[in-house]
Write a structure and sequence with these properties.
The chain has about 270 residues and is an alpha/beta fold. Helix content is about 35%, strand content about 25%. This is Aliphatic sulfonates import ATP-binding protein SsuB.
Length: about 270
């Protein structure tokens, strides 16, 4: 296939995205379905989100990109119930089809700052908010993120990447149906960032939660997401389906899609 035909093929995928492939979905989906309808958010006279509609599938990995101030983090905080909409609705549906609904206990957020308690050990931070009978599960997650040997240490004794691994283990120890990621890797060096991307993807595939990532890094969005939405002035300006096999390689198809998303961001 020539370079031109490859570019045309990727463009066709974006314009007419096929259904998500089975090999890019988590092994067992427990994530919540999220339905956002006619969402508005105002801060005084400033309109941040306007008439936004978005349907996130159970177990989907969604990335949100856009320029600073376009409403990315505001949308994430609204989904997390950290703020209330001015108008509109955000509804959740359990992928397990259980009678009980999704509550705030089913949603966890990872921020750019790991927000660990400095007076508690790494293991105690991961166990925070858990019943004693779930402490073993938290310890097992520390092993999954490669920090089993660091369990008795204090947060100040870890590197930035290790603190974010701790924050990830703490979030997942609660077995969330929804994991919200607000630029959690933005302050990490390039190599550590790649390692964390691989770790987040691995645990998403294992646990099957719904993931929503806010990022300024278009390459990171293409690396992790099933779908990318571009926000502009409170609206969804574009959507891109990422139909690349996992684990993803930064080949010509990857680079072509990354460039198209970047061009769309720059055009806003």
């Amino acid at each position: 296939m020539t370079d031109l035909s490859i570019g045309q093929h990727v463009a066709e995928q974006i314009q007419h995205p096929p259904s998500p492939q089975a090999d890019i979905q988590p092994n067992a989906v427990i994530g919540a379905e999220i339905l956002i309808e006619q969402l508005y958010k105002f801060y005084g006279d400033v309109k941040v989100l306007e008439d936004l509609d978005l349907h996130i599938q159970p177990g989907e990995f969604l990335a949100i990109v856009g320029r600073s101030g376009c409403g990315k983090s505001t949308l994430l905080r609204l989904i997390a119930d950290l703020e209330q909409p001015s108008y509109g609705e955000i509804k959740f549906k359990s992928a397990r089809h259980l009678r009980e609904g999704i509550t705030s206990d089913d949603i966890r957020v990872m921020f750019q700052d790991p927000r660990l308690l400095p007076w508690r050990s790494i293991e105690q931070n991961v166990q925070l908010g858990l019943h004693k009978d779930a402490h073993a599960q938290a310890t097992a997650l520390l092993e999954k993120v490669g920090l089993k040997e660091k369990a008795p240490l204090w947060p100040a004794q870890l590197s930035g990447g290790q603190r974010q691994r701790t924050a990830l283990a703490r979030a997942l120890s609660h077995q969330p149906r929804v994991l919200l990621l607000d630029e959690p890797l933005g302050a990490l060096d390039a190599l550590t960032r790649l390692e964390m991307q691989n770790l987040i993807e691995k645990l998403w595939r294992e646990q099957g939660f719904t993931a929503v990532l806010v990022t300024h890094d278009v390459s990171e969005a293409v690396q992790l997401a099933d779908r990318i939405i571009l926000l502009d002035k409170g609206h969804i300006a574009r959507q891109f389906q990422v139909n690349l096999p996992r684990p993803r390689e930064k080949n010509l198809n990857f680079a072509e899609l990354e460039q198209q998303v970047l061009n769309a961001v720059l055009a806003t």
